[in-house]
Amino acid sequence: MRSLNQRFPSHICDVKADFPFDIKAFSLCIVVGILISNSLRAQQDFTGKVTTVIDGNTVEVLSQANETHKILLVGIDSPELDQEYGDQAKKFLEKLILNKNVVVQFKGKDRFGNRLGVIMINGKNDPRVELLREGLAWTAEKNPPEDLEPYKTWAQRKGRGLWKQENPVPPWTYRRNQTMLKPKSS
């Protein structure tokens, strides 16, 4: 019987097993796998109940796993609470969604790490559409969803909600202006 070195070139059979390193590498792979699966699981759609309406486009949802998730409605932006129509947007969203069972479809995170999602009431009603129809939200500043634009345009034409104003200030402009007004810290 010929040895392995005689049948194969030496560089193929010259495998050195560093057993402790292999265990470390294997353990690292397991840990990374667990972290990735937890991250993917956290990004999956879920069913829950809206427990809090924070503002016109932000809610907290208690999942069936008893975890609270803060969700920003993707693709729209409602006036800030201290902006005209901000409080109306919040109250309207409360009437639509507070204490209701919903399905949350995760759509990613914004630049601040906030979870973005589409929320469906009873599996079919999208509160983003209702907010836009009532003139209580803009479509997003960047990459507005094409399917939501017609609702905003309709509300503008009808002069609904914030579109009653001659020159309504979008919330992203309002936030930038507020940031500029704050004194700089030294």
- Total strand segments: 7
In this structure, how is the largest beta sheet organized?
A: 5 strands, mixed, barrel
The chain-level mean pLDDT equals 85
Tertiary shape: globular
CATH architecture: Beta Barrel
> What Rg, in angstroms, do the CA atoms define?
26 Å
Strand content: 15-25%
Number of helices: 7
Distance separating the two termini: 80 Å
- Oligomerization state: single chain
Concise overview:
The protein is of the alpha+beta class.
Note down, in words, how this protein is organized.
39% of the residues lie in helices and 23% in strands. The relative contact order is 0.12. The chain contains seven helices and seven strands. The protein has 186 residues and is α+β, with helices and mostly antiparallel strands. It has one domain: Beta Barrel (OB fold (Dihydrolipoamide Acetyltransferase, E2P)). The chain starts with a helix and ends in a 5-residue tail after the last helix. Strands 1-2-3-6-5 form a five-stranded mixed beta barrel. Strands 4-7 form a two-stranded antiparallel sheet. Helix 5 runs parallel beside helix 6.
List the defining traits of the structure above.
alpha+beta, OB fold (Dihydrolipoamide Acetyltransferase, E2P), single chain, 39% helix, globular, five-stranded mixed beta barrel, 186 residues, 7 strands, two-stranded antiparallel sheet, 7 helices
Layout of strands and helices, then pairs:
Blueprint lengths: L3 H4 L2 H4 L5 H24 L3 E10 L2 E6 L4 E6 L2 E2 L8 H12 L3 E9 L5 E7 L5 H7 L4 E2 L9 H10 L12 H11 L5
Parallel strand pairs: 3-6
Antiparallel strand pairs: 1-2, 1-5, 2-3, 4-7, 5-6
Helix pairs in contact: 5-6
